Amino acid sequence: MLDDLKANNRAWAKWRVEADAGFFRRLESQQAPQYLWIGCADSRVPANEIVGLDPGELFVHRNVANLAPPQDANYLSVLQFAVDVIKVKHILVVGHYGCGGVRAAVSGERLGLVDHWLHPIREVAHEHRHELDAIPEDRARHDRLCELNVIRQVRNVASDVFIHDAWARGQDISIHGWVYSLSDGLVNDLGVTVSGLDEIERLHV
Ligand code: CO
C-alpha cells in the first residue's frame, strides 16, 4: 500500500514539473497564501481540493469538528502565524454536514479524551436546545448543530486578541463560516462573515 503512495508521489511531482518547470522552486522560496482554513480532520473534506487551490495557496489547520478553542495552543499558534506573519486576508471556518465529531459530542456515549475536546459543542447544543429540540428530524437537527458550531467558532476567531490587534493595525481580515456537504460536494456560506470589531455582536445568536 505504501509503495502505491510513493509511486503516486513521484508521478505527481513529475506532473507538476512538466506543467510548470519553476513550480517547486517558487514554493521553496516563500509561501504567501491569502487564506487560512480551519476545518474538520474528516478524510472526506480535503481542504485544497474542495476549493481548487494549489500548494502554497491555502494555510490549513484541521482538527476533530473544526474547533477554534481560545485555550488551544496548536490552533492559536496557527492563527497568530497566519495573521501576523503570513498576513492572510480571509479565515474560513469550514464545518461539514454529517460531522461525526459533532454527533459524538451530543450522543451521550463515552469515547475517551475526545469527549473533553468536544465539550464546546455540547455547550453550543445546550445554548440552542430550544431551537434544536423543535427540529423533529434527526438528520436536520444534527445538520443545524453543525451550522451552529461553525458560527460559534467564527465568533471565537473574531473575538481573539490577535485578530483585534490586526484590525487595530488596519490589517484587512475577514472571518467566514461555511458548511460543506458530503452529499453533493458543495459549500454552504452561512452568511456570518465578520470583517471588523463592530460586526461581532450580530454573531451572538
Ligand atoms: Co467532522
Structure write-up:
This protein has helices spanning 2-19, 23-29, 47-50, 73-86, 100-107, 113-117, 119-127, 129-133, 138-158, 161-168; strands spanning 35-40, 58-63, 90-96, 174-180, 187-189. Strands 2-1-3-4-5 form a five-stranded mixed beta sheet. The mean pLDDT is 96. It is globular, with a radius of gyration of 19 Å. The longest helix has 21 residues, at 138-158. The protein has two domains: 1-30, no CATH class; 33-202, Beta-carbonic Anhydrase, Chain A, CATH 3.40.1050.10. By secondary structure, it is α/β, with parallel strands linked by helices. 48% of the residues lie in helices and 14% in strands. The protein contains ten helices and five strands. The chain binds cobalt (II) ion.
The CATH homologous superfamily of the largest domain: Carbonic anhydrase
Order of helices and strands: HHEHEHEHHHHHHEE
Low-confidence region ranges: none
Judged by helices, strands and strand pairing, the structural class is alpha/beta
Task: Average the pLDDT over all residues and give the rounded result.
Answer: 96
**Percentage beta strand:** 5-15%
What distinguishing features does this structure have?
binds cobalt (II) ion; alpha/beta; about 200 residues; about 15% strand
Question: In terms of topology, how is this protein built?
Answer:
Elements: H1 2-19, H2 23-29, E1 35-40, H3 47-50, E2 58-63, H4 73-86, E3 90-96, H5 100-107, H6 113-117, H7 119-127, H8 129-133, H9 138-158, H10 161-168, E4 174-180, E5 187-189
Bound molecules: cobalt (II) ion.
